[in-house]
Amino acid sequence: MTPVPSTLERARQIVEPEIEAAVTSLCPELIHPVRYHFGWEEVDGSPSLAKSGKGLRPALAVLSAEAVGAPAATGALGAVAVELIHNFSLIHDDIIDGDTKRRHRATVWKAFSVDDAVISGDALHTLAFQVLLEEPSSEKVEAASRLAKATTLMLAGQAADMAFNNQPVVTFEDCVSMEAGKTGALLGCAASIGAVLSRAQEAQIVALDNYGQKLGIAFQAVDDILGIWGNPEITGKPAGNDLRERKKSMPVAFTLSLKSSESEELEAMYAASNDLNELEIKKAMQLIEEAGGRERTQDEAQTQLKGALEALHSAEFHQRPLEELKEIAIFVRERDH
Amino acid sequence: MTPVPSTLERARQIVEPEIEAAVTSLCPELIHPVRYHFGWEEVDGSPSLAKSGKGLRPALAVLSAEAVGAPAATGALGAVAVELIHNFSLIHDDIIDGDTKRRHRATVWKAFSVDDAVISGDALHTLAFQVLLEEPSSEKVEAASRLAKATTLMLAGQAADMAFNNQPVVTFEDCVSMEAGKTGALLGCAASIGAVLSRAQEAQIVALDNYGQKLGIAFQAVDDILGIWGNPEITGKPAGNDLRERKKSMPVAFTLSLKSSESEELEAMYAASNDLNELEIKKAMQLIEEAGGRERTQDEAQTQLKGALEALHSAEFHQRPLEELKEIAIFVRERDH
Predict the structure, then answer these.
(1) Which of A25, A119, A155 is opposite residue B96, by nearest beta carbon?
(2) Residue A145: which of B26, B114, B134 has the nearest Cβ?
(3) How far apart are alpha carbons A37 and A117 in whole angstroms?
(4) In 3D, which of A21, A25, A92, A14 has the Cα closest to residue A58?
(5) Cβ B79 vs Cβ B61: under 8 Å
(6) Tell me: the pLDDT tens digits for A266-284?
(7) Which of A255, A333, B275, B331 is the residue whose CA sits 20 to 30 A from B219?
């Protein structure tokens, strides 16, 4: 496995206790499914040893404060708010996508019920704004306003993604634009919210937001590659999983948009109603690879990461956190899980 | 039908175009189910002649600005934000309660899909905070902060209501406290948000918030009576509907909490797994009436309304809007739909 930058773990240790504290303000009925979702307890209420997510957003929020010369703690509140939004969207997305597993555990709707998942997500959604607004200052209000905009873009991306299911052909550009909303907007917010809370210069905030947005698209491009060609032992998902679910991810969209024999064959497989067997999945992987879908997606990841790193050069930042932001960008490209 | 105060229609004409304008900022995929929900178009996208809700919250928000001497327009932004939260919760509640009809039309999850309903609700939820925060001022921030708190209480009330299904006995007080969250908190916010946006005195804001909270509980108590004994031709729901759905509403909770033969008989009916037939529903109505559940709920509505009106006397308000707030309280008690 590609090693995860230590800065992610450092940020988690600062931010996670604050998320845990914020969650205790929820009503008793909702605390339990929410704590389960975060991997802090099991369905029966016992403590959990589950692994949490990579913690990319908390790290970006904390580093964005440090990058403009503020202490990590200044970014932590922003990290909490962004993580609450991110996790509300995960809980609701799992309902929408019908996903039964997340990080090797049953999703909230599967472990509890769709009803519990709807309302637990709603509660985290509100809580994100509440933590920023309960003792408001001009910078917290600015952070909340940006978070609301990013959340609207994220939901628009998710709605576009849902609409892809009913569109026979989705272009590569449609995919990138959908991911700019679904993943890029909130990552841009995460990567700048610490700077916003530190009353940084506008140029610094814009640079960090751009960095985060592009990092988000690159992250998703790599995700789309891992979703087809990832090592099942490392990703925890069977090979070709996105194809089995007939997801119109970037490599697939690229291939489908070509007017070639490969695209026609893949289109027919995607249009059929039967479950794809292992042989068909291998065939689809090969078709996409030959059509250049994998390479185009890798190029996109590379281009977006280059843009992300260039964005960091458009303003002045403190050296150590700047290096760590760059290290995160490299990790996003190199990661295998 | 009990006539609806003309102030509700006046507020609707001010507020509805502003909600419609706010909704146009959503992404194309979400505008359609949201416009359907508001009764502005049909599933096929054609204009709708559907009736919208009573518009209680917009009226309260507008009157709360006028009551402290500000123009109606000052309250309108608050009305938009509260209505967006209220409607997000309706869309999600209909999923949770499995309700297929709202205002004589299919609910969003039924007409579109659960997925569309989840994400459309989410989009309205975010939009509520976005409209208050996009050009922030100290009073808009205060309004957003109060709205977040009220939404958290509303969701806690909804979660408590869901938990009632798994509790064999729910007390009358449990019910009132659940409704104080589920309905009271947002009505308190609606009835004070116009005053908050008008930078009113703290005593005025507190008085209006108390009025709205108590009005909300009274509204729900009347709803619980109509849900059992309402005239089907006026309510649009079959007689005894809440009993058919085995809802633990106030009259039922009162009866179940008594240690009497009536409570035992009703408890057995609620514990059985068969669909209740017409004869059983009539029997349940009679049991609850004889046990005093209807009277106790009517008394509660009366007590809460008295408290609501008293709250209005704890601060100074402008005469005409004050009279209209009182008129709304009378309507809430007298209404038959």
Answers:
(1) A119
(2) B134
(3) 10
(4) A14
(5) yes
(6) 999 999 989 999 999 999 9
(7) B275
Q: Is A141 on the interface with B (CB under 8 A)?
A: yes
**Which stretch of B60-69, B109-118, B269-278 has the lowest confidence by average pLDDT?**
B269-278
Average confidence (pLDDT) over B138-155 = 98
Q: Is B107 left (phi over 0), alpha (psi -120 to 50) or beta?
A: beta
Contacting B residues, span 48-67, partner chain A, CB-CB under 8 Å:
none
For chain A, which residues make up each domain, given as ranges? 6-334
pLDDT tens digits, A115-124 = 999 999 999 9
Report the interhelical angle of B28-37 vs B114-133 (nearest 10°): 100
Q: What b-and-e string marks burial along B252-283, b requiring 16 or more CB atoms within 10 Å of the CB? A: bbbbbbeeeebbeebeebbeeeeebeeebbeb
Question: What pTM, to 2 d.p., does this model score?
Answer: 0.96
Q: Inter-chain contact B129–A152, Cβ cutoff 8 Å?
A: no
pLDDT tens digits, one per residue of A80-105: 999 999 999 999 999 999 989 888 89
Provide the pairing of β-strand B101-102 with B105-106. Answer: antiparallel
Interface contact B159-A27, CB threshold 8 A: yes
Nearest to A162 among B115, B126, B133 (CB): B115
Find out whether B40 and B308 touch, Cβ atoms under 8 Å: no
Of the CATH numbers 3.30.1830.10, 1.20.1440.130, 1.20.120.420, 1.10.600.10, which one belongs to the domain with range A6-334? 1.10.600.10
- Concatenating the DSSP letter of every residue in A266-326 gives HHHHHH--SPPPHHHHHHHHHHHHHHTHHHHHHHHHHHHHHHHHHHHTTS---HHHHHHHH
